[in-house]
Amino acid sequence: MVKMKFPDMNEGVAVVVDLDKCIGCRACQIACQEWNGRTPIKTQFSPTFTNPQRLEANAWKVVFFKELQATKRIALQEAQATLETVEVVPVPYNCLHCVEAPCAKACPVGAIKASPEGAIVIEASECIGCGYCLAACPYDVPRRGSDGKYYKCTFCVDRIQAKLEPACVSVCPTEVFTFTSMSEAVKIAEKVKEDGRKVYGLSLDSYVGGRVRWIFVASKDKADRVFPAMFPEIPRNSNIIREYLNNIGLPGLGLLSLIALAILVLSWIRAKRASKH
Question: CA 19, 173, 42, 135 torsion: positive or negative?
Answer without folding.
Answer: negative
